[in-house]
Known about the structure:
Largest sheet: none
Structural class: mainly alpha
Radius of gyration: 13 Å
Strand content: under 5%
Shape: globular
Low-confidence stretches: none
Number of strands: 0
Order of helices and strands: HH
Number of helices: 2
Amino acid sequence: MSRYQSVGSDVIEMTDVSEDAKYKKMDEFEKTLYKDGAVPAGMNIRKRKILVFDSYAEASKQREEFIK
């Protein structure tokens, strides 16, 4: 197992893309990862980022590339 692992969410449509709204979404996703056991015991989330796109299609294509 690699020391590092990348995890991405589904595409999320947001009407509010303020910094507060983006960090709230990241916090919610992080809580879900810990709650669902997606983060193995003894490991922590070290880096998070959220990407914003102009269209759902553009976001979906980028996600597809990320999960390859």
